[in-house]
């Protein structure tokens, strides 16, 4: 059989100037300034959403704990006393044979998103029981992230 001759072509090698070898300091500074502006504009919006998300999480947790307290009442015939507190959802209070718990898997569920224990009162001032978090500032009242999250 006949052999086919293959012609190899060489690509012309490109020569680089020192100016074409990379980015200049000015180009890098422009990119850094643009990134800084983007972060400066976006960060406050992100922080706003983080704050409201903690308040929303606390609202959902208060609703869930309220439902669990109602379940406790159905089993035991009463809500936990102030002395028993929310711990009564984790460990059987004394002299409660109809306790059917634990109603929570972890004690972490009794802590609000800001790291403080939920407040509980029975009987409540605003309802059958009062379950609430004092928000980010830990004080009554407030707006935005500092607002109280309540069961009433």
Quick tags:
152 residues; mainly alpha; three-stranded antiparallel sheet; 1 helix; elongated
In short:
The protein is mainly alpha-helical.
The percent range for helix content is 25-40%
For this structure, the quaternary state is single chain
In the predicted model, the low-confidence regions spanning at least 5 consecutive residues are: none
Number of helices: 1
The shape, in one word, is: elongated
SSE string: HEEE
Average pLDDT rating: 84
- The chain-level structural class is mainly alpha
- Strands in their spatial order, largest beta sheet: 1-2-3
Our measurement of the CA-to-CA distance between the termini, rounded to an integer number of angstroms, reads 95 Å
Rg measurement, Å = 32 Å
Tally of DSSP β-strands = 3
């Amino acid at each position: 059989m006949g052999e086919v001759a293959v012609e190899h072509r060489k690509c012309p090698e490109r020569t680089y100037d020192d100016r074409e070898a990379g980015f200049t300091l000015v180009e890098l500074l422009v990119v850094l300034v643009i990134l800084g502006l983007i972060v400066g504009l976006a960060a406050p919006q992100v922080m706003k959403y983080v704050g409201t998300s903690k308040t929303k999480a606390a609202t959902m947790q208060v609703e869930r704990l309220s439902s669990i307290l109602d379940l406790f009442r159905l089993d035991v015939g009463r809500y936990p006393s102030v002395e028993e507190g929310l711990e009564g959802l984790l460990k059987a209070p004394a002299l409660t044979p109809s306790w059917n718990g634990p109603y929570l898997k972890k004690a972490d569920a009794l802590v609000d998103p800001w790291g403080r224990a939920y407040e509980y009162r029975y009987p409540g001032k605003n309802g059958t029981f009062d379950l609430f978090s004092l928000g980010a500032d830990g004080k009554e009242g407030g707006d935005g992230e500092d607002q109280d999250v309540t069961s009433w």
